[in-house]
Amino acid sequence: MKLHEYQAKEVFADAGIPTPASALATTVDEAVAAAAEVGYPAAVKAQVQVGGRGKAGGIEIVESDVEAREAAEAILGMDLKGYHVDRVLVEEAVDFTNELYVGVTMDRGEGEPVAMVSTRGGVNIEAVAAEEPGAIAREHVDPGFGMHPYQARRAVYDAGVDHEVANNVADVLQTLYELWADKDGADAEVNPLMVTADGEVVAADAVMNIDDDALFRQPDLAELEEQAAEDDLEAKANEYGFDYVRLAGNVGIIGNGAGLVMTTLDLVDHYGGEPANFLDIGGGAQAERVTNALDMVFADDNVDAVVFNIFGGITRGDEVAEGINTALEQFETIPKPVIVRLAGTRSTEGMEILNTDLVQVAETLETAVQAAVTAAEEVDG
Question: Does 189 participate in catalysis according to the annotation?
């Protein structure tokens, strides 16, 4: 479960991590009143769970009631990278001298949690990790003992954080790790952690993702789940019982089994495309479930083409084919190109059932992905 920024900041503030004064608003008038309450300058921030909000026009710094109204009118109701903005966080703007990054996640390769610190805050940390991995200091933590204070300090000093604020940053990192562990976190990060001229640190952004399977241990956070649902697609995925993650690309992906879907995502990237989603319909998917999956992917305006990758074990290829036909026959014209690859149980029968007037059939996963990437490029171009 992904918390919104305003929800994550409430959790962080309750644990003692400094955050700016703020208020949530769902209307323009509420936003103006909130800005006047927290004081100017103020930041008006779209509450959608996607990166790059500032560059996309989802964050504005305002200096007056007039500017606050203009910003709220522009941001509320906007489509930001495919997400509808229906609420904004209005918060005190931070006068900063530096931007840092701190985060905690699971390093599955090492089988341990890892705490991370970087002086390259305020930018896409994934890009920093790929282009300049040495710019991120990492400290692995034995979950049986938790993070010791010396480990937090070592990560901060290894990152090259100024010694005048190092202890404050280490305190934030240790608190973040404790929250991650106590709240059954999947990821927790502050980007940026801003350093003020007075040597204080303030969490200007907040990310907190919770392990869905552990929500029964987190009743307070579980109450936030409905509020945290990002949009109609994620709400629909919960309703259908799909494992679904929305991404930033334009190639829709449907498969049965997490490993198969991840392989498909990797191949889309390998062949120069950008995945639009992760959608696992699970094993034993029957026609109705397949229809629901296609309905979801078609509803994403970012999707320009769809690749359907099914390997039949308990899932029968002929039932999947019937679901695809049923879904597509509802349309006078197919809204997006669909490329289908079937293998495994009754896949031969499924290939014969598929209506090739509605879909493109591929013999291998590689050719299916290449066809989907090409189709998406042609639509996007």
Answer: yes
